[in-house]
Amino acid sequence: MALDAARSGFELEPSQRQAAERLAVFGAQVTGRRRTLSRKSPRSLYLHGPVGRGKTWLMDSFYARLQVRKRRVHFHDFFRGLHAGTHNVDAGNGTAIQQSVDALLAEIDVLFFDEFHVHDVGDGMFISRLLRTAAQRRIPLVVTSNYAPDELLPNPLWHDHFVPTIEAIKEMMDIVEINGASDFRRFPAGGSAPVPGPEGFRAGRIIAPGTPRQLGRLGLFTPSPLQSRVLTPTTQPIVVRNSDPDLLWVGFEELCGGLTSTSDFLALAERYATWVIDQVPSPAGAGPDSAPVWQRFSNVVDVLHDQDITLFLIGKGPLDWDVAAPGSALPVDLARIASRLSLLGRSDIDEALAQEEAAGS
């Protein structure tokens, strides 16, 4: 992995290097187990730390080199498949949840689980089943998370229900913290290239206030009302402003203000390589009643980043996710979302151009 980093123009910092060494030991144990047909399972690994510290990059670099039967899943994809499985399996052959977990673990030696987090007690139940089944089948896991195990399911109303699973995680996994001082998405190490990331997502921009001249310079042209249509990606209809073969243009309220789910966002991401979300409100004005709306927006960003979709966000501004006021309705994963959105370029109109636009209107 150090060689992979060098080819990409950066060096591993100390905690990344420690994690890479632990992954190398894990890899030797897994491959040695296969050669000797040993039933002893290597201890699973739980890599955690703040956003932008290279956890996913390390895992993906290791995944590419590990020559065993393996599967990599992302948190949102996992739960999409799991929820779909509960509707599509034959209940006479066992519980729907168990059959979905069985399918996930079928014919693999190692499961890689990226962006592991638990904010919902129902998801916590699924995770518990997954961990229990993996332990029974002696299938080790490699997990990345922004949360230490004790910080999972932080809602005080439900945290105690998840404590037994947290204890199981600490019992079956080696906990490795990656805690470098810098978010490498935002601030690459001096003299190094940015940590590799999704190039399609990086091509997007945050645009404020979104004048016709700003949009035109980026090849974006506001759709006419005649281009509006209704899409039904899963079960929830969504009114969009335009949907060309590879471009989806939708308003913030239409996308995040209704009953849409992560499954809707995943289905749309499979169809459209470029997204434009306009009329994005300033996060600074997020009130208590808007918490579900901003959580859906957080899920959108997660999905588009993971699927490497180009994203344009348009709003009057300020569109800054780095500052959360006390009692803010912004999601608990704000730091991760702000880090991911920092990959996007910015087009902020200056005062002179604003006056020019106003004079010409």
UniProtKB/TrEMBL annotation:
GO terms for molecular function: ATP binding; ATP hydrolysis activity. It comes from Paenarthrobacter nitroguajacolicus. It comes from the Bacteria. Keywords: ATP-binding, Cell cycle, Cell division, Nucleotide-binding. GO terms for biological process: cell division. The gene is zapE. The keyword Ribonucleoprotein does not apply. PANTHER family: AFG1-LIKE ATPASE, ATPASE N2B. GO terms for cellular component: cell division site; cytoplasm. This is Cell division protein ZapE. InterPro entries: ATPase_AFG1-like, P-loop_NTPase. CDD domains: AAA. It holds the Pfam family AFG1_ATPase. Gene3D superfamilies: P-loop containing nucleotide triphosphate hydrolases.
